[in-house]
Amino acid sequence: MSRSVLSLRLPAYLQTKLIQNGYHTVADFDETPLAEDLAQFLTQPEVRSLASAAQAQPSAHSAWSIQQQALTRSYFSTQLGQLDALLGGRGIPLGCITEVIGDAGSGQTELCLRLCLSARLPATQGGLGVNSVYIDTVGSFSYCGAARAAHRLSALPSTLATSLLDSIHVFRVYAAHELMALFCSFDQIASHIAGVGLVVVNTVSWPFLASFASNIARRQALHAELSRMLSQVATKHKVAIVLVSQAKSPFGRSNLLTSSSMDGDVWARVAANRISLQRHSNGFDIALSASTMHPTGEAFVSDL
User: Fold this and answer.
1) pLDDT band at residue 48 using 50, 70 and 90 as cut-offs
2) What string of DSSP letters covers 118-138?
3) Chain Cα centroid distance, residue 164
4) pTM for the whole thing?
5) Fewer CB atoms < 10 Å away: N or C end of the chain?
């Protein structure tokens, strides 16, 4: 499976040049006379930069360093006692990916807004005082919904509610290449928005369906590439990344623990935790359906 051009450590303008000229993956370079073809739109220094980036190899980490990273990891409370309990009593871990899976309308957006607001709370209230990046791919973000969530979170004074809302930075993304480009440029985003501790993608499924509706192989290749990029961003910037994925088919409480994503298990392979949701008339069934950290389990919450 070849790496996407967007994953290479290249300036954004150079990635754009390559894509505009039909180079989408590293494998594309092997299908044409490289020097001759690239010389038509790249300078020699740019060709050398491209060759160096394409040949770069992943680095290794010792088991000791991985353990130390886990021991020093930060968490923030979801402000839902039942969900925190499923997550080992500490909440959402930074430096990790958490997948949230459910049917349309099952409460994913409400949970994502709650997490953004909860992460901003001070440490005395279970938060970390961090900013969040909310990547909206389906038009689900609503300021009114976020304001209601801020006031519902607890009996907050209006000044604190305003501060919570001011900590959520929303990006509207429409296509797969825009989503991948955003994570490629996350260094710049993190330098522009100080103190980012949480990144939410709601939803990660839709951009790939919109861009490659009938090309399953292409979707799978880009899913794999994005999962690698997400892991790198989470580790490098010590941020929690929450991915909302669409459930493969409607599920009820009886199979909440075995729910699956329409994207397959690509996100589960890199996620530390998978949270499954199901809405009912009187509340929400919520489950930790997969985890590398905790036992799986289920709970019920009356409100998100």
Assistant:
1) confident
2) HHHS-GGGT----EEEEEESS
3) 20
4) 0.81
5) N
